[in-house]
Amino acid sequence: MVKRATIIQGATIVNECVSRQGSVLIEDGRIAEVAVGKELPVRGDEEVVDAQGMYLLPGVIDGHVHMRDPGLTHKATMESETRAALRGGVTTVLDMPNVMPQTTSLELLRQRYALAEGRCYVNYGFYLGATNDNLDDIKQLDTSHCPGVKLFMGSSTGGMLVDREEVLRQIFRHSPALIVTHCEDTARINANMTAVKKQYGDDPDVRFHPIVRDHEACYQSTALAVKLAREEGARLHVAHITTAQELGLFEPSSDRITAEACVPHLLFSDADYKTLGSRIKCNPAIKTSADREALRKALTDGRIRTIATDHAPHLLSEKQGGCLRAMSGMPMVQFSLPAMLTLVDEGVLSMERLVELMCHNPAILYGIKERGFVREGYWADLTLVRHESWKVTKDCIESLCGWSPLEGRELGWQVERTWVNGASASPASVPSGKAVIFSHPE
After folding, report:
1. For residue 2, is pLDDT > 60?
2. For the packed helices 186-200 and 215-232, what is the interaxial angle rounded to 10 degrees?
3. Residue that wins the pLDDT comparison between 303 and 157
4. Alpha-carbon torsion 195, 201, 207, 213, what sign?
């Protein structure tokens, strides 16, 4: 069956560091033509989208999500979380391995891809998780079908801690794919927790979370990861940087050792625990306003290579308690693009830089073929946004967990429409996501 072509007329196309008015033709799932400064002729029965006054961006690539499927589907599923991604202009998600069972073997990785087929509203990829004893699986990984190896160098959610330096060194030496690390020093966290519990009881208030998972715990672990990557020649991407101190470990010019910032750490500071409490509890912890400002500055000086969400849905009932009992993580994928565009309005960064950090750079970093740019011949993963204020309310939330830390917050931009593999997608449409193909550099 031949798909009907689509013409997007008169949008401001934001792509490869420039914003220019133009039009885009979509045929057979791909971008057939990009016409700058003019409208495209309508030749037959094409669907014509009048995009005057709106901005056309490449679809967002979120390199850090937790869909919770399989094994934790009471709080999220592949269907629900890719619907949330789609609603937010995200067209590709890369999903973490700490599900049940954990994705720590090649066979379990194959099973996850099989489970996702025909269920996802956006494109997808799955990480292989590192453990103390799966080096052989890592060595044999088919890198064309996996974005990277996820390495928990600090205990978080799911019990996949790898903290023996010789094991770490072997993973850094032999991984054929990008290594993506969660960096926190577990021994320091445990010592901090013991001290805080001694003073404030068995489940200290959540405001102590950034004291338990403190700056030094993050810095020590990140410094070790960077040291091992340099010594072993590995490609390293450190997930969710949270401190100004860690930023000093990264060079803007390096393509082999890079850093990710996550939306919660760019939006919130420790002052927000007073009003939002455990809703913003995540690992690593949200820290000071000075750390947040340093992260925001690093978005434009090159030390941060990508923006992701660490989208991590839990039921609100699981978020009850303090810094010990309340689960860590929050849903964010649906609102990441509007929230970051609101930072554009505030002068934190330009829209062109935002597209680099959320679209272009993830495609380059993970080697995602033919996506992440508005280029002729590429897959038509696109999102159309308009500059219009709105308030996040509970009734618009697509994530199965049913809440957002942004409820009641005013955002300055709305996602008008999204295309995935050329199909104009909506939460009511048939899932059109595909497993993406990766091309990792040596």
Report:
1. no
2. 170
3. 303
4. positive
Q: Label residue 182 exposed, middle or buried (CB < 10 Å: 0-12, 13-18, 19+).
A: buried
pLDDT the model gives residue 4: 85
Q: Is the pTM of this model over 0.90?
A: yes
pLDDT of res. 441 = 72
Decide if 6-56+377-399+412-425 and 60-366 have a common fold: no
HEC profile of the chain: CCCCCEEEEEEEEEECCEEEEEEEEEECCEEEEEEECCCCCCCCCCEEEECCCCEEEECEEEEEECCCCCCCCCCCCHHHHHHHHHHCCEEEEEECCCCCCCCCCHHHHHHHHHHHCCCCCCEEEECEECCCCCHHHHHCCCHHHCCCEEEECCCCCCCCECCCHHHHHHHHHHCCCCEEEECCCHHHHHHHHHHHHHHHCCCCCHHHHHHHCCHHHHHHHHHHHHHHHHHHCCCEEECCCCCHHHHCCCCCCCCCEEEEEEHHHHHCCHHHHHHHHHHHCCCCCCCCHHHHHHHHHHHHHCCCCEEECCECCCCHHHHCCCCCCCCCCECCCCCHHHHHHHHHHCCCCCHHHHHHHHHHHHHHHHCECCCCCCCCCCECCEEEEEEEEEECCHHHCCCCCCCCCCCCCEEEEEEEEEEECCEEECCCCCCCCCECCECCCC
Classify domain 60-366 at the CATH class level.
alpha beta
Domain 6-56+377-399+412-425 belongs in CATH node 2.30.40.10:
yes
**Close Cβ partners of 19 (under 8 Å, ≥ 6 residues apart):** 12, 13, 55, 351, 352
Mean pLDDT across 171-195: 97
Domain ranges of the chain: 6-56+377-399+412-425, 60-366
In this structure, the number of other CB atoms found within 10 A of the CB of residue 46 comes to 16
d(CA 59, CA 381): 5
Residue 1 confidence (pLDDT): 40
CA-based diameter of the chain, in Å? 74
Q: Could you read off the pLDDT of 230-262 as tens digits, one per residue?
A: 999 999 999 999 999 999 999 998 999 999 999
Neighbours of 186 (CB within 10 A): 17
